[in-house]
């Protein structure tokens, strides 16, 4: 009888017709998220932007493994609701975009983006590039809050401890109040929600979406030995400052982007060539040519005055712009009229 009940419980599977399918295994019920197919996303994208390809940072999540196919790479214990394996102190919480990019090495003055300039190139790694998009209704039904952390983790079971820590960090970022005056922000878990936020923040449905070149490795670029020369600079938006929205991929079992607008901005595509260093054995690990998008925040008057960036620059917030490169997994939105 016990074996029979186990088999019966294992076969209780409700497919389709709702936001979730439910799989009951014994007394434990696990909700299985409903993921968006590539054809669905392509159809939606073409309805908005006919004959325009999806940016690679969005497309990467279309081919991601999902459901039972999703692999957890970390070779460690799984998080369990019955254990005390995760506490708030275990987690690095990113409060805003300045904390998100993690290091002031990633910040540059706008003046360096001129042909012939040389720099130590730092581009942050892309987070969770291979997590799959959820269907829009499924994404909207997830109660995105640290208060619902256990419920959310159980939705995506199994979840490794490393991913659980990343999920807590992401949820904390989504909940944290804006720290830059005038910033607009939202965490989006579907292509529809991402586009909706960008359209609302920019006040138009006529948008262009960009992602940085595939020249940029997923793991980013970061080492004092990575010396690059600026070969070319192209203004993506009009030379005058414009309003844009940047969406950063975040650590989560499904595709999730932290989108925010800290305007006005100037956007550039920078082509960089690696400098030859005969004595540096690590140079060969970095790409010889990199094309990357850079965002320059023009109005910095409300930025954190304690950043070492200002000391190095000899300026105060409001006296100079702050620029950073986009990662391989980020998406930039701009009004079509300026891009």
From TrEMBL:
Keywords: Signal. The keyword Signal applies. Residues 1-16 form the signal peptide. Residues 107-336 form the BURP domain. InterPro entries: BURP, BURP_dom. This is BURP domain-containing protein. It comes from Urochloa decumbens. The lineage of its organism: Eukaryota, Viridiplantae, Streptophyta, Embryophyta, Tracheophyta.
């Amino acid at each position: 009888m016990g074996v029979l009940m186990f088999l019966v419980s294992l076969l209780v599977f409700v497919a389709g017709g709702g936001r979730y399918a439910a799989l009951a295994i014994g007394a434990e019920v696990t909700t299985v998220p409903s993921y968006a197919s590539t054809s669905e996303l392509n159809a939606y994208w073409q309805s908005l932007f006919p004959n325009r390809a999806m940016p690679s940072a969005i497309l990467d999540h279309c081919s991601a493994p999902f459901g039972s196919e999703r692999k957890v790479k970390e070779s460690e214990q799984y998080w369990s609701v019955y254990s005390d394996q995760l506490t708030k102190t275990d987690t690095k919480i990113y409060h805003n975009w300045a904390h998100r990019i993690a290091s002031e090495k990633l910040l540059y003055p706008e003046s360096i983006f001129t042909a012939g300039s040389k720099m130590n190139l730092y581009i942050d790694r892309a987070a969770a590039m291979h997590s799959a998009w959820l269907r829009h209704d499924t994404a909207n039904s997830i109660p995105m809050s640290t208060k619902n952390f256990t419920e959310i983790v159980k939705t995506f079971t199994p979840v490794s401890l490393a991913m659980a820590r990343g999920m807590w960090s992401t949820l904390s970022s989504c909940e944290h109040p804006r720290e830059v005056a005038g910033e607009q922000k939202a965490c989006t878990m579907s292509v529809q929600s991402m586009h909706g936020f960008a359209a609302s923040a920019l006040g138009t449905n006529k948008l262009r979406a960009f992602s940085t070149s595939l020249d940029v490795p997923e793991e980013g670029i970061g080492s004092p030995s990575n010396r690059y020369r600026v070969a070319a600079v192209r203004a993506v938006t009009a030379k005058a400052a414009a309003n844009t929205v940047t969406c950063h991929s975040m650590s989560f079992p499904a595709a999730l982007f932290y989108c925010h607008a800290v305007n006005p901005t100037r956007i550039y595509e920078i082509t960089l060539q690696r400098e030859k260093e005969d004595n540096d054995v690590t140079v060969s690990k970095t790409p010889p040519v990199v094309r990357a998008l850079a965002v320059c925040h023009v109005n910095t008057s409300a930025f954190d005055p304690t950043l070492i960036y200002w000391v190095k620059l000899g300026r105060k917030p409001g006296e100079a712009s702050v620029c950073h490169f986009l990662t391989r997994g980020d998406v930039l939105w701009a009004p079509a009229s300026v891009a």
